[in-house]
Write a structure and sequence with these properties.
- This protein is of the alpha+beta class.
- Helix content is about 25%, strand content about 25%.
- The protein is built from four helices and seven strands; from the N terminus they run H-H-E-E-E-H-E-E-H-E-E.
- Strands 1, 2, 3, 4, 5, 6 and 7 form a seven-stranded mixed sheet that branches.
- A hairpin with a 5-residue loop joins strand 4 and strand 5.
- The longest helix is centred in the first third of the chain and has 11 residues.
- It is globular.
- The protein starts with 10 loop residues before the first helix and ends in a 14-residue tail after the last strand.
- The relative contact order is 0.14.
Length: about 160
């Protein structure tokens, strides 16, 4: 299998990030979250019809935990986005509130979430309307990415 691109992971930064003592996550920056997503990239083919980890995501929960995910691209369309993977990891750990989320492509460039991901972010927890979404060149609340949303405010 093909490994990650040579520039990833940024070993020094990622090791430092993962091993911060408890209580230091309040100093976690957007750049740290982007670096965590980039360090998770590991594009490879699992089978003739499945490629994984060409897009990676990192999210910071309201509780201060970081969760990571990668995409699964399958020829039959049954794969899922990296944001879904990170959200599943968060839910598995017992949380649902996302403070900040980011996704990066195989080159490490920041990607905006697709419509399906935007919906999942908000539907997992109504408080996630305020989730900070790191976009190319700016940060926006998830609610701004879903104007005239079909869910009522009380959902």
């Amino acid at each position: 299998p093909q490994g990650p691109p040579a520039q990833y992971p940024p070993d020094g930064l990622w090791r430092e990030f993962r091993h911060r003592p408890p209580g230091c996550l309040d100093a976690l920056t957007d750049a740290d979250l982007v670096a965590a997503a980039r360090a998770t990239l590991a594009p490879r083919r699992l089978s003739p019809t499945v490629e994984v980890a060409a897009v990676a995501s990192a999210l910071l929960t309201a509780g201060g935990k970081v969760h990571l995910g990668v995409c699964i691209d399958a020829a039959s369309g049954i794969g899922f986005c990296a944001e879904h993977g990170a959200i599943v990891a968060m839910i598995t750990a017992g949380e649902s509130r996302i403070a900040t989320i980011v996704a990066v492509d195989r080159r490490g460039a920041i990607l905006p979430p697709c419509g399906r991901c935007r919906e999942l972010i908000v539907q997992v927890d109504p408080g996630n309307r305020a989730t900070r979404v790191i976009l190319p060149g700016r940060v926006a609340p998830a609610q701004e990415l879903l104007p005239d949303h079909w869910l009522p405010d009380r959902a």
